[in-house]
Design goal:
The complex is a heterodimer of chains A (289) and B (588).
Chain A lengths: L1 E5 L4 H4 L1 H13 L3 E3 L16 H17 L3 E4 L2 H16 L1 H11 L12 E3 H17 L8 E4 L3 H4 L2 H4 L9 H7 L4 E2 L18 H17 L4 E4 L2 H18 L7 E3 H8 L4 H4 L17
Parallel strand pairs in A: 1-2, 1-3, 3-4, 5-6, 5-7, 7-8
Helix pairs in contact in A: 2-12, 3-4, 3-5, 4-5, 6-9, 10-11
Chain B lengths: L1 H26 L11 H16 L3 H14 L2 H6 L1 H22 L5 H4 L10 H25 L8 H26 L1 H11 L5 H14 L13 H14 L13 H8 L3 H6 L2 H19 L7 H14 L7 H14 L5 H5 L16 H12 L6 H12 L6 H5 L6 H13 L13 H6 L6 H18 L17 H9 L14 H5 L1 H4 L4 H5 L3 H10 L2 H5 L2 H5 L5 H5 L6 H18 L8
The chains are: A alpha/beta (289), B mainly alpha (588).
Chain lengths: 289, 588
Amino acid sequence: MKFALQRCCATSIYLTQYESSTDAVLNALGVELVDIKQFSCCGYPLKNFRYRAYLLSSAHNLALAEKEHLNIMTMCNCCYGSLKHANQILKDHVPERADINASLHKEGLQYTGEVAVRHVLDILHAEIGIEGLQKKIKKRLDGLPIATHYGCHLLRPSQVAQFDQPADPSKFDDLVQVTGAKSISWAKKLECCGAPLWGINDELSLDLTESKLSDAKRAGAAFLCVACPFCQIQFDRVQRILHSRRGADHALPSILYTQLMGLALGIDAKTLGIEKNEIDSTGILKHFS
Amino acid sequence: MFFTVSLYISLVIFVFGLVLKVSSWFRFTLDPEDEASKAGTRVSAALKGIFLTLFSRKILRVVKAFFLDILFQSRILRESLLRWVMHMFLFWGFLLLLLMHALEKTISYPLFKDYSATLNPFLFLRNLFGLMVLIGVGISIYRRFFLKMPLFTNRMDRYALVILAVVMLSGFLLEGGKIGSHTAYESMVEEYAVTASKEELKALESYWVEEFGTVSSAVKGPFEKEILAQGKEVHEVACISCHSKPQWAFISYPVAAVMRPLGGLLDRAGIPVILWYVHFLACFVGLAYLPFSRMFHLIASPLSLLANAVMDAKESDPANLMTKQLIELDACTHCGTCTSRCAVRIWQEEILNTKILPSEKLAPLMAFVQGKNLDEEKIRSLQEGLYLCSNCYRCTGVCPVGINLQELWFKAREAVLARGIPEVLLLSPLSFYRALRREELAQETYEKPLSSIRRALEEVCNRVDLQDSVLDIQKADLGFRKDLGLSDWGESYSFCFTCTTCSVACPVVQRYPNPPEALGLTPHQIIHAAITGFSDPIFKSNMLWSCLGCYQCQEACPQGVRVTDVLYKIKNMAMERLKNKKPADKPS
């Protein structure tokens, strides 16, 4: 199994542990990841500003992957949503595809619609499978209560995302539970982390983050688990800023799914960058046996 | 005399420029508010930093960077073999020519007992080094003008190529001319073969015509063997100790051969003398102009590489970090590596602003830092270019001269924003990265640009006021409705029957006890306003700019209105309106 990896721009300095843990976990599971040097940003940040520039960015990467006869794997919900949405538009709307291809042509590229866009959770759930993962797992958690956070664009809009039931998803919970954790139910599970407004309306962004943290904590979570760089940065780095501005009442460490799975697969904590999480999440190590 | 005078003039200009440039590293700043930015503080911090580095273990990192990054240029090799070959040829060819040939009086003569420009290996090496530079120039021209690459070539790049090519080509032509030159031959004879008899001189000349390519009108071949043997004897006494066979000048000798049919004529017309003038004057122009041209990277780039080998944002003195950024602005060679790897390079296809591209930001940034009189439009486009960056860090990772570009963008973005020109992109998710470092900024510095763009929005969208109890339909924006309805993302808005489900589903609306007060319009009201064509209240509503893009509303809509996508489309339209400061279309 081989995929072109869309690395998210947000991971390169602010979340290097997501890159290293993804590489390590997929390597351990026999999934080959290819870095295409010319890959661009998925275009997500320009959706507010210039729709066509967004579409062109995504199309650029789809065309590059198509040239290499590879499907794309993303490790970010926003990259996933953007690429998948663009893919749908380019496949279904012939005039838009022709228009975008006219621009891609200048780069010596064109897109015909042959690429599938997959999320890392989708690969793990659909390709490796819960049973497959079970066989590879070397260490198990002791029923540690974890609040699983899906992140918006993995589920919505459902016509685009097509990962799971949009209102009652279970796949990510299955993936968390297979490590021996207990994926708890909590009221704000499917809500936004607040990251899209971080930098535009910081107080509102912090409000949303804070309410999610307090809700998860109230439901008994010891950790949050996420699979999107923006969600993780929000729950980790921004949570630290939240503490310094509003106090640490709702302190709750967040761990990336690839870190969690990596630990279960017996990969060492250093490779997974557990100590790089700003809200100390090394406490999870003692729950593995 | 002319040579000496022009040398000194160019040296004076060079030193003046050097002082100007080096002092600019301490005089200019990206953060005038910062105490650490003062020139005096920075000079002493720099001296202290250098002193401390010299006597610490960090010196090992300096040594490593010197060999690996400067002499071996490993960072270029990592990116492209062709570029590495090009630059190694340019760098080593130029450097060795400079040391061995241009500075022969100061270096080669004292260093080598038997040094003579016409003696091997120096004769051969001069050609070799010159050829290396020419190959480098050739590859560069090929890359810049023939290879299909995202590479921008500006005046300075062309100047660098032209000056190098002129110096090298005039050098080869000059040497070729001298090989054939009878005048040059005669002046050598006068100096080194004064004791020879007339007959011996004739034999010597025959020998040189035969073996050294001298063009002579006095003797003509074919020569008898005895004459040549006699000439060789004289040659071995008078000439051989400081004149190798010119065939070793493997470029210049063929050049001389081409010139030979016209040799006498060129010689009498004084062409070698003219070429000599061209050659040294080109060198002096290059020297004098060096501090003012991109060739200044010869000095700034190694410094940038060495500084970056030992400095980092967390540990180093802020004064030194600022100085380093100024050196980095000079260190850029405009090679375009950053742009070729830029994750948002493709945006430039759609948003026509070259300053999106990292390699094209540095020159205007330099002008900005130096306080040059940039008009508002130039600052605006630089600001947009600086903001249109996904902070992926790739430019920094690949820069062959080790410039921490990402850090430069961060500082520069704030410096430009401080000028107070409203930036629409602050309302895009690109602000995420700015906010991640908000703790490094004063609260006012951080918040001012955000409030300024909201104010600009209020000013542009002032045709309709929601406080009015009755909205005047005459003020509806029909162009807006049409644009929205024709777009793929916007068209579904007209299915809305105002059931308010979207507003109920919205997590932002849920945050407020009195949503209309806090948000202006809630999602269903936005859709309704769109149906009636009132764009201004939508554009300035807090709701539009507080939309998370989480798709809860869209997912919940029973009518299949793609609410979130409609909001995205409206944001695009608002940004466009703001950018062009165009008032709403009047109803037709």
